[in-house]
Design brief:
The chain is mostly helical and 227 residues long. The chain is built from eleven helices and two strands, in the order ααααβαβαααααα. Helix 1 packs antiparallel against helix 2 and helix 7 crosses helix 9.
Length: 227
């Protein structure tokens, strides 16, 4: 089970215990809080085992603050910008778990890429390494964008997991995987800093829900305006 579901279950157990202690004083049957807690724990367990915590994700998304949503926007705009400049095809994006759900995308959503080039076999080693470097930079670009905008990165857990999984599959030892992530984050930060005007404009149009094509056109126009 993921930590969020475990935390909710722990809160439920604590609440049931406290309710059971005070129920006699309030003349409330103990079976009442026990039944509610049993139902909630059952739903959480079902969500974890069957729906990969999608229900919890959608529920918590309802309580996201404006500041959290802005941070997500900056994070995903970093992914989008890096993917565009590094030639990684972008197939879509979502900024909330509910948008992702409507688009039939997994998890909390984000920018979706066409990973065919990375997954396709039969390429020369230097081509594979170049493509890997590009994807690693794109995966780290969300964290890099948060660091540049907020001074730290709160998101990116899925990005790190995906990057580490690919590197592990390719035989990178832990120390080299860490170095690769750090290098990719630096590359992403540099790319965003060099294209700061395009990045800020991209944030504005993504906030308005612009299409992938419109976002790409905005970046291209901004790039052409650079001296």
């Amino acid at each position: 089970m993921q930590s969020i579901s475990l935390n909710l279950i722990a809160i439920g157990i604590f609440a049931m215990t406290m309710f059971a202690l005070f129920a006699p004083i309030l003349n409330i049957p103990v079976v009442f809080p026990a039944g509610i807690t049993f139902i909630i724990m059952g739903l959480l367990t079902f969500d974890t085992l069957t729906w990969n915590n999608r229900g919890v994700t959608l529920f918590l998304d309802l309580f996201s603050t404006a500041e959290q949503r802005e941070r997500v926007l900056h994070h995903e705009a970093g992914h989008f910008l890096a993917a565009y400049f590094l030639g990684i095809p972008i197939t879509g994006y979502s900024l909330t778990a509910w948008e992702a759900f409507r688009q039939k995308q997994p998890g909390k959503g984000g920018v979706q890429f066409d990973t065919t080039a990375l997954e396709k076999g039969g390429q020369k080693p230097n081509q594979i390494n170049l493509m890997l470097d590009r994807f690693c930079t794109v995966w780290c670009a969300g964290m890099a964008a948060e660091i540049l905008s907020y001074g730290n990165a709160e998101g990116g857990e899925d990005d790190r997991s995906q990057l580490q999984a690919i590197l592990k599959e390719l035989g990178y030892p832990p120390s080299q995987r860490k170095q690769k992530q750090e290098w990719s984050t630096l590359q992403a930060k540099s790319l965003i800093e060099r294209n700061q005007e395009a990045y800020q404009t991209l944030i504005k149009v993504m906030r308005q829900g612009a299409s992938v094509e419109s976002c790409e056109q905005i970046i291209q126009n901004q790039a052409q305006l650079k001296p």
